[in-house]
Amino acid sequence: MAETYRILVVDDDFSIVDILETSLREAGYQVLAAHDGEEACRMVNAESPHLIVMDVMMPQCNGILATVRIRESHNIPILMLSAKAEGSDRVLGLEAGADDYLVKPFYRQELLARVKALLRRYDDLGSIREIRGEDRLTVGDITLDTAAKQLIVRGEPVRLTATEFKILRVLMSHPGRVFPAEEIYERVWESDAYAVENTVMVHISRIREKLELNPKKPEYLKVVWGIGYVFEAP
Question: What is the value of pTM for the model shown?
Answer without folding.
Answer: 0.71
